[in-house]
Structures are given as C-alpha cells and as structure tokens.
Design goal:
globular, 7 strands, alpha/beta, two-stranded antiparallel sheet, Rossmann fold, 10 helices
Length: about 280
C-alpha cells in the first residue's frame, strides 16, 4: 500500500559535476538583449526611462544554482521529462515513481512540509535519475539551493580530511550537506556498516530532520528491519536490508523524513543504456 503526504494529480564525484556546470556557465553566450550588461532600459507607466534587470539574469542565476548543486557529470542531463517509462519491459512501479516525483515538485514546499523522498529499488531502475530530476526541477522552478551527495564518496572525503596534510576539515565537508535546503543523498547504505559510518548517518539525518530540511535519498537495499536476531547462518543466506546497513534507529528516522517510493524492474543500464559504439 503506497501512502503520500502530498497530492498526486491524475495526470560521479562532487567536483566533476561542479566543474562541468562551471564550464557551462562560463561558456554562456553574451546576451543579445543587454549585450552582457545585465540591465535594460525601459519606459515605466509614468513615461520615465528606468533600468531593470535583463531576463538573462534569471537564467544566469539558475545556472549558478545548478553549478553549485554538484550534480555529477554522468547525471547532469537527467531530468524528469527524460525519464523513460515506455520502453519494452518497463515495470509499472517506474511510471508510478515518476508520477510521485512530479507531484512532489508540484507540492513543494508548502504541502511537502520538510518531507523528502526515499527511492528504494535494485540496481539500474532509475532511482538516481529521478532524484536528480527532482533536484533540477526544484532549482529551476522553485529557486532552491540544493546539493547532490554520493554518500560513499562523502565518507571517503571525510576519512581523507583526517590526514594532517589535508587543509579541508571534516566540518568543511559536512557543513553544506547539513545546511542545504534540498539534499540528494545517493546510494545510502553502500558503505560497510561500522560505528563510525552509523555516527555519520545519524549526524546527517538527525540534523536535517531537526531543521526540517528536505532530503531525497536513494538506496539499493530493501526498506526492512535488520536481521540482528537471526543466526549467523541465517543472516548469510538472506539479502541485506536497509536496517542492516544503517541501523534500525536511522531507518525509523527516514520513515519520518521521507515518503518511500518503491521501484522494481530490470537493470536499465544492462538493457536500454548498455554501452555501445559504432
């Protein structure tokens, strides 16, 4: 049974994405309306000539917000409109997930009230595509400031910050993640669970929950409790769950923070998007 808190109408690394977006921003053509000045002269209702911002300024601000969102190069072109649900063998849950994503954007921020989305599914069903698509739409249509974060990459960067030779501190890495208006936390649970990993999960999720900041999460692990009460043999024979990977306390926190979106289907990357040349 799928439940939502908003209405559905009937109808690679951080730096690489940032660098690509910055290049796109730098290569924007000089505006033909204002000749790059950023202002245009118009006559107001009283007949006086006044200056107002050129329409190109809104587009430049949007591109700057996208550049600062750290969307990886491999996902830069992912949009909700570009998410295909009509290919042969597509699972109905993928169309439902797209519909939910669109409804979320339409409802943000009033009806979502700080809630986010939790995309759950196996490899290659389009979880990250939809998460990035939601982030892009919120940046473009709602003017939000958001960030994409690969959780495994973040943990590695935090570990590297402990090196005395590294000038970037753990606080420098975590502050934008904790404070972003909208955060996409990709591939949650991918790292082998340890107390240190769980402490970081708790810090991010609890901080954002307490501040009512929107978090969009993707995970490959089923949203089920951990198998702590099972024998070692039973645990080895069963698929690991999100509870196993992040702990039951944080899985419960996610249930408060996010509307779950279950996605099924074959690995899109092994079929429709399989690498080819020629």
């Amino acid at each position: 049974m799928r439940t939502m808190l908003f209405h559905i109408p009937s109808r690679a690394t951080h730096s690489s994405g940032h660098a690509q977006a910055a290049l796109r921003l730098k290569s924007m053509a000089v505006c033909k309306i204002c000749d790059g000045v950023g202002l245009v002269r118009v006559v107001d209702a009283t007949g006086k000539w006044i200056s107002r911002p050129c329409e190109c300024q809104a587009a430049e601000r949007e591109m700057r917000r996208l550049a600062s969102a750290r969307i990886p190069a491999g996902y830069w072109d992912c949009t909700l409109d570009g998410y295909d649900t009509a290919f042969p063998g597509a699972d109905p849950s993928q169309a439902w997930a797209l519909k939910t994503a669109r409804a979320f954007v339409d409802s943000y921020p009033v009806d979502t009230a700080g809630k986010g989305l939790l995309f759950v599914g196996s490899l290659g069903v389009g979880k990250t595509h939809l998460a990035v698509g939601v982030l892009r739409r919120l940046i473009q249509e709602r003017g939000v400031r958001g960030i994409f974060c690969d959780y495994g990459a973040l943990l590695k960067e935090i570990q590297q910050s402990y090196n005395p030779r590294n000038t970037i501190t753990e606080f420098d890495l975590l502050e934008p993640i904790l404070k972003a208006e909208v955060l996409v936390l990709d591939d949650l649970g991918a790292q082998k669970p340890t107390d240190w990993v769980w402490d970081n999960v708790a810090l991010i999720l609890n901080t954002r929950y307490n501040n009512k900041l929107t978090t969009i999460v993707t995970t490959n692990y089923p949203d089920l409790p951990p198998g702590a009460t099972l024998s070692e043999l039973e645990r080895a024979a069963r698929e690991q769950t999100l509870g196993d990977r992040i702990g039951e306390r944080m899985r419960s926190r996610l249930a408060e923070m996010c509307v779950r979106v279950d996605m099924n289907g074959k690995d899109f990357r092994q079929t429709v998007k399989r690498a080819r040349f020629g």
